[in-house]
Write a structure and sequence with these properties.
Elements lengths: L8 H11 L16 H7 L6 E3 L5 E3 L3 E2 L15 H13 L4 E3 L8 H10 L7 E6 L15 H15 L4 E7 L12 H12 L3 E7 L3 H8 L6 E5 L8 H10 L2 E5 L11 H10 L3 H12 L12 H9 L7 H8 L4
Parallel strand pairs: 3-4, 4-5, 5-6, 6-7, 7-8, 8-9
Antiparallel strand pairs: 1-2
Amino acid sequence: MGHAGRLSHASRSTVRRRLRGRHRSCDIDPSGVHSDEEFMSDSTIPGGTFTLLSGVTLTRMGYGAMQLAGPHVFGPPADREAAVAVLRDVIDAGVTHIDTSDYYGPHVTNRIIKEALYPYPDSLHLATKVGARRDENGGWPHARTPDELRQGVYDNLENLGLDAMDIVNLRVGGFSRPEDGSIEEPFTVLAELQQEGLIRHLGVSTVSAQQIAEAQAIAPVVCVQNFYNIANRQDDELVDSLAAQGIAYVPYFPLGGFTPLQSDALGAVAARHGVTPMAVALAWLLQRSPNILLIPGTSSSQHFRENLASATLTLSREDVAELDAIGV
């Protein structure tokens, strides 16, 4: 499937004027970190909210749109109407944070989001990723040249029907770990697009602490997306460091991704609370640090509601100690 056509400078300016008032301004919270009491008073949605350094407030329970595409995140879904329905349920539930990418499908997921939700509610913030593409075999090769990054942003804008992305993350490593090397050149490209008005806020994905620092020397970083869950804890120190800086940490594959989480301890805690192990895994992440934002994905409205309900679960100190041992 070929790339969507580039947006002309004239069309980008026209759409920018039309949508400039779409996002409401938010007061900036210097820390970005709220207490547990503030979480529940700030929002009616379970899990509460987190305010990015840029001043944008997001629900901590977000939604990851990857599973809206076909098998292996390639091609169209078997049931497009169900995909549209789950997105509308996400908005009806009060979620204000949807994570996507134009290489999901490719192009498929973003077009479904536009079909389901456009014109977008003022409260909704869409985050995307660039830095990869899909090949004819469904692979995920890098796409980090300046031209590829620019085209990736243009494709997201066109297929979502926007003129400026709320958040664009630079994807650097593979699925589970960062790759060594400088990210100065690709992140500078995104910083330039931000200066051009096509991106509002920047983040990074699958990166090391050193690469985050390198990016911060170029432009502000409001969020980091890395592989992290109850059984994969290599970013523990990074989560705490980012919390101290008021930077959101968004763990992808919070339920294990392509290899769903399985653990006797997880099952035991779930049994005590009368919930699913996946609900416990999500609740653990929410209690792990107040800067963690969740983006569990599903193509099922029922599963979405189950994921959302996990934010109401409070784990005891004993529960947390037992669960913490899983990642040791």
